[in-house]
Amino acid sequence: MHIGLITACYKPVVNGVTRMVTLYKSYFEATGHKVSVFTLGCQTKTENEANIYRSPAIPLGSTGYHFALRYSENARRALSSVDIIHCHHLIMGLEFAHRYGRCPVVFTNHTRYDLYTGAYTRMPQRAADQLFKFIWPLMTSFCDVVVLPSESLYRVMGEFGVECPKVVINNGIDLARFRKTNKERIWQKLQIQDGAIPIIYVGRLSPEKNLDSLLKAFAIAVASVPDIVLILVGSGPLQGKLHRLAIRMGVDDKVRFCGSVPNESVPDYLAAAEMFVSASTTEVHPLAVIEA
Prior knowledge:
By secondary structure, the protein is of the alpha/beta class. 36% of the residues lie in helices and 18% in strands. The chain folds into two domains: 2-168, Rossmann fold; 176-291, Rossmann fold (3-Layer(aba) Sandwich), CATH 3.40.50.2000. The chain is built from eleven helices and 13 strands. It has a seven-stranded parallel β-sheet with strand order 3-2-1-6-7-8-9, with helices on both faces.
């Protein structure tokens, strides 16, 4: 079978959706299927994967996302020949699948778009809810089935009026990466002293993750447990702001900003910590929590 994966962003962008698309692609190919990925933006100089179709688009700042009105002719032709489409984004995804595909369309809804709206705009939550009571049913009418990573999101989609057939399939991870880890390497790299109690966050440093609240809570905890150290693995637009906040609260010597790390290194970082922490209220079934 020839499977088309549609995503609004792809490698080298680092986020949960890109990771899930990568996992789907590798496992589908391992079972003998042909997989093509359709996304937006320019080809990277280091890209060496086959069957990656990138259409010209306007970058949306440094988010890794792009805006386009159409796919390239090459991508349109390739998408029209696949046997099934698995779409991973509501916007810049489902409408393209509907317009160019000639086969069944499956859509996995990874994101609480209604809650993300408040993190990136000043729109009141009530207005965002009304907006997505229109957008979600409209866009999902373009697909044949909606896959939802959690029971809670299944209920939310019903409350927002989505009538398309829905099924819950939990996100999965590659367990092989976690069978052998090197905690000591990370402690040495981050200069963590014996007796310390490391806690860790893995994910984007972006508004919807509520990381300023996490840092403030950490500063309160340090007053009671001075041996704790916070490891922040990931990058994003809030990195500078969070660093300045840590300095202002007097805990910058207790916080390790690691930036983005290769996926194969994440198990080592998780093994180096005693606890995983998150302050996000917008998650669905996050890979970072499953991996932790």
